[in-house]
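Thread: quick sanity check before group meeting

JM: Hey all, I'm pulling together slides for Thursday and realized we never actually wrote out the predicted structure for the chain we discussed last week. Dropping the sequence here so it's in one place. If anyone has concerns about the input, flag it before I start.
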Amino acid sequence: GRDYRVEPSSDATQPHHDSLSHEHQPSDRGHHRRSPAMTDDWRTADELDVERMIRQSTREIWDDKLVGKIYEYYADDVVVHGGGGDIVGSEALVEDTLKRLNAFPETEMNIEKIIWEGNPEDGYYTSMVRTITAENTGPTEYGPPTGKTMEDNLGIANCLIQKVDGEWKYVEEWIAYDKLGYIKSVTPDDDPIHDY
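JM (edit): ok, ran it. Output follows.
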């Protein structure tokens, strides 16, 4: 059977990591819970608390704007695959994240669902469904800020997490999101893209 436990910061019950495949729908739909900071022993634990890593890294990097945490959570040679091409290495990922946060400084990322499977030997494949709401107040690759709000932009981040030098890290990531919705939020209303 499954072992259920209650997180101290929430009334939601979650399955304990004792089976191969896991799915969780938070009771506070659309908002990720604030969990206590991970301790140093988390980084080298035999088995990973996958959901906690995903929620905490997302909160720290996107909500708290602690972009330097990318160096702690991602492997130095991480590859992030996206519609605009690959981002290779944690340094390039930091630069890309800073550009996105400059364009949308008040980014609100809401985790809708996390599913994962894996084990300590092979690593963990994860999928996070999320939405982003943010106002474009900084320049983008499409031009100056528009002041428009991108509402509930749906995206999925799939990751592979493995141990690197004895610590759990994201080693590869695949990202897909509503690119058309993004482009419409960063271009003037008279741009032909708005005809689609």
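AS: nice. Confidence is low (pLDDT under 50) at residues 1-36. DSSP finds five helices and nine strands in the chain.
JM: adding both to the slides.
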